[in-house]
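Class, look over these structure tokens:
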Amino acid sequence: MYMATHRQQEIVIEFEKVQLIRRRARTTFRSCPGCGRDAYFVDLGTAARLFETSYDALWHFVAVNSIHRDTVDGYETNICIQSLLEVMQRRKSGGVVR
């Protein structure tokens, strides 16, 4: 006679939440050396506020993912919005954005 064994399994279900955020930010439109085309740039501090994250966390994300950036007047870091969005899209389609 065959007896079935019953085991408990952990099941993990993740839901992805899509959230539309509309905010205004001061941008500059200029040539991006990384893209090789004209693009919008935003300073890192403003971008951190837009994404509701810390400056340090966004700086780490920019550095690790080689997002195009430059400095203005030797101190203000600006990031290429097109480059940022492309990296985020690539990472999202491959799994999770971190």
